[in-house]
Each structure stands twice: as C-alpha cells, then as structure tokens.
C-alpha cells in the first residue's frame, strides 16, 4: 500500500473524532466509556492527528489498552497511571479506574505507517500490530556498538561510524586484513571492560573488531570477535578468521560476524569468538610471563553465492 494513500481527515471526519473524545468526557462519571462503534468513521488518519489523539501526556508514547482517563476526560497510558500516584497529570484530579473504551475503539480502527517511515520503511499496519513490527523493523536505528561506556547514541551506519571516530576516538582502518598487538602490563588485573575497538572498512561495509578481558567463572580470559555494522541477513554474507600464537603454538577462530543488532554483551557472553585462557595468553607472550603481549591477526572475506547449487564459496577479492 502506497504512502500517498494516507490522507488527512477533514470536515465531518474531524467532527466524528472530536465526538469520540467528547463521548468519553460525558461518560467519565462511570467506570468505562461506551464502546459503541463510530458509524462512518474513517479507519485511516494523518499521523499528526493520531499522535495528538493517542499520545500519552506523560511519556509521549502511543497509548494502548487499557487507556485510562480522569473524571474530566484527560487520558493517559496504563504504564504512567501508576507513576502519577493516581492523580491526573493535567488537572490533578483523582484518576480512579475509568477506561475510555471509545478511544480504544478508535485506535482499533486505525492503520498507520511504521514510525521509521522517514528512514525508508513503507509498511502500514493496524494500530495494535504497529508496535510489534517496530520492535524488529529492519529500518530501525542501530545502537552505538562502543562497549567501553553506556552510550545511548543511535542512528544509521554512516552516522555511527562518524560518532565512533569523532566522539569515541576509535581507530579506523581500510582493508580486509588486520594485524594488531595488544599489551597489558599486569595481566592478573582483569576488569569487565573493553580494551580496544577498531573499525574496518572493506567491501563497502563497516566491521567492528573487539578485543577485551573479562572474568569467565573464576578464570580471567581474553576474547576477540567481529561485529558487522548492519543487519544479520547481510552479516551472513561475510566470514572472518582470527589467529593468535607464538612459541610454536597457535589458536585459530573462524566464523560469521555478528550484527550490531546483537549487543556487545550478548555476543561476548555467548563466547562467539576467539577465547584465550590467561595461561595460554601468557605462554604466547613469552618472557617472564609478567606482561601480556598478544599479536592477533585475521582477515575478512565475502561469501559468494554459487548459482548452480546455492552454496556460498569464499570471495577473497577486496
């Protein structure tokens, strides 16, 4: 269904909208507003009209049943009702247990665009299905992948790349291979904190290489893993390998990068990456084993679909 099919409600349709709200106000002395259907009510409204009618005045989110109201007809969502200590935030009157069923019926009759329509989503949903879709919409913004702090920044990939470079001072590299050296003066002090995040740009995409130390049970470990700055379906088009070793020993990990839709903690706690136990890390470091010196190498490649049998084969070109 095309976006330009969504038109504003004018004239009598606006009057019916106001009539629905007035009907709630007139019946506020009872415990529920009438749920009588609104004859001739058009099931599609301009987004601005909907927001004005169904936006909670406290949290400004869209309201879903049960929608509560005070004796003067002011509405709010069920989540915020408990937060305002049973007092209407608009007129300060006691709320009681009054529901506006007429307004709930209005919501039930609506079809609205996804709230991410400005980012490219052209889907239209019934009001009560819209929220479920938006939680998994492919056009929803990504969260900042930086794990060193609780960063609340969201946006598309270009915005987050600029944010990582300018605000978090993350190292940026171009190419599909990496060769990093990690040094820690006291490897016995392990904190749940990221050591390093590096962003790689290759195949026209961005990848985040994480390397950190954390406590796994009673034992400290070191872990490296790759995340793809895009959705999971796109991430499956790529593979990567990580390698660490010295003194005639070597550990190798190969896998698919995880999407940044999965949080840093979720990936880390699933152990989906190269995990190096402390004793092995110290062995790789050599010397007197009092300083951690690890060299992690690896590469990223794109999987190429074989049209004959549907099997992905490595494409190592950049």
What structural class results from the helix and strand content?
A: alpha+beta
Q: Helix count?
A: 9
- The beta-strand count equals 18
Strand proportion, as a percent range, falls in 25-35%
What's the pLDDT, averaged over the residues?
Answer: 78
Order of helices and strands: HHEEHEHEEHEEHEEEEEHEEEHEHEE
C-alpha Rg, in Å? 27 Å
Low-pLDDT runs of 5+ residues are 1-21, 26-47, 306-313
How does this model look, in words?
The chain has 318 residues and is α+β, with helices and mostly antiparallel strands. The protein contains 9 helices and 18 strands. The strands form 5 sheets. Strands 8, 10, 11, 12, 15 and 16 form a 6-stranded mixed beta sheet that branches. Strands 9, 13, 14, 17 and 18 form a 5-stranded antiparallel beta sheet that branches. A 3-stranded antiparallel beta sheet has the order 2-1-3.
Layout of helices and strands:
Layout (H helix, E strand, L loop, with lengths): L11 H15 L20 H8 L13 E2 L5 E2 L1 H6 L14 E2 L1 H8 L2 E3 L10 E3 H8 L7 E2 L10 E2 L1 H10 L4 E4 L2 E8 L8 E10 L2 E12 L2 E10 L3 H4 L2 E9 L2 E7 L2 E2 L4 H6 L4 E4 H8 L6 E14 L6 E4 L3
Parallel strand pairs: 8-10, 12-15
Antiparallel strand pairs: 1-2, 1-3, 4-5, 6-7, 9-17, 10-11, 11-12, 12-16, 13-14, 13-17, 17-18
What's this, in brief?
The protein has helices at residues 12-26, 47-54, 78-83, 101-108, 127-134, 157-166, 232-235, 264-269, 278-285; strands spanning 68-69, 75-76, 98-99, 111-113, 124-126, 142-143, 154-155, 171-174, 177-184, 193-202, 205-216, 219-228, 238-246, 249-255, 258-259, 274-277, 292-305, 312-315. It is of the alpha+beta class and 318 residues long. The two termini are 39 Å apart.
